[in-house]
User: Which sequence fits this backbone?
């Protein structure tokens, strides 16, 4: 890994808005999943309400709440429908055909927020936002069962100011099934072989030296980090002792036990945007 020191102050924007979507009842039986555990819809609803409440009331974001669509069982996982960086929103072409229409409501919401919209219309491209890790300096795009090379190329065209590297994702749904940014220049990464292998590739591809925080459980490495000047550094995350090493962070544990049964991690449930308030 090259010796370019990170200027941490420049990394990772603050956020003013979050786009979330209500949970459809169809999630329990029809959402896509790699496992077979039964979802308790009531508990899933409670978890989601708490998540949205933290964004609104603890972190002070303006939250745009899209209505659920029963015909789109995975629609609560809004992250997959768009990648937002600066003033640009790339509306994706999700890898699962059953999820493609989720992008319509997301496009409308992000247009309303005044973002410049780029649409992934190429029918050979697929990309889920869950495969996109933005570090503040560059993008890593997981090549997974949902995201392909063409999807990564279109993302690179949409965000020309940043380098984009691809990382093969093995044995997991998305790249962010085992990693996320947990602070400026700090990558939270799971301890599994798949996660460590992906991290090694990211380190080899990058000109930047990232710090890493290794979590024993891959899913716990998926946290929502945001730098909110009025609140200090914040991380919205699953409860795990190792995060307590992050002394400067305000840590807000949020349970995610039900949505995880349908492969939904914490970052999956919001699209974070940095705009002036009250647009
Ligand atoms: N259930 C989330 C997904 O498979 O995309």
Assistant:
């Amino acid at each position: 890994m090259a010796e370019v020191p990170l200027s941490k102050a420049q990394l990772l924007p603050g956020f003013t808005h979050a786009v979330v979507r209500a949970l459809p009842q169809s999630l329990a039986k029809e959402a896509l999943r790699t496992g077979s555990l039964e979802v308790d819809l009531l508990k899933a609803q409670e978890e989601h309400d708490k998540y949205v409440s933290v964004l609104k009331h603890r972190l002070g974001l303006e939250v745009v709440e899209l209505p659920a669509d029963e015909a789109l069982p995975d629609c609560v996982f809004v992250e997959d429908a768009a990648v937002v960086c600066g003033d640009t929103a790339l509306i994706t072409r999700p890898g699962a055909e059953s999820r493609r229409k989720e992008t319509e409501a997301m496009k409308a919401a992000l247009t309303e927020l005044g973002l410049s919209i780029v649409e992934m219309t190429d029918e050979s491209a697929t990309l889920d936002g869950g495969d996109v890790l933005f570090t503040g300096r560059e993008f890593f795009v997981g090549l997974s069962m949902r995201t392909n090379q063409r999807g990564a190329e279109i993302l690179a065209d949409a965000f020309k100011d940043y380098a984009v590297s691809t990382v093969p994702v093995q044995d997991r749904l998305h790249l962010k099934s085992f990693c996320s940014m947990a602070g400026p220049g700090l990558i939270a990464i799971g301890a599994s072989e798949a996660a460590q292998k992906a991290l090694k590739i990211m380190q080899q591809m990058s000109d930047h030296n990232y710090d890493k925080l290794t979590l024993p459980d891959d899913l716990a490495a998926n946290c929502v980090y945001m730098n909110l000047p009025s609140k200090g550094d914040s991380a919205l995350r699953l409860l795990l002792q190792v995060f307590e090493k992050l002394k400067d962070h305000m840590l807000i544990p949020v349970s995610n036990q039900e949505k995880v049964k349908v492969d939904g991690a914490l970052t999956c449930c919001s699209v974070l945007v940095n705009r002036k308030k009250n647009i």
In short: Helices lie at 27-30, 41-58, 102-112, 149-158, 193-205. The two ends are 42 Å apart (CA to CA). The pocket of glycine is lined by residues 31-33, 74, 77, 96, 173, 262-264 (CB under 6 Å).
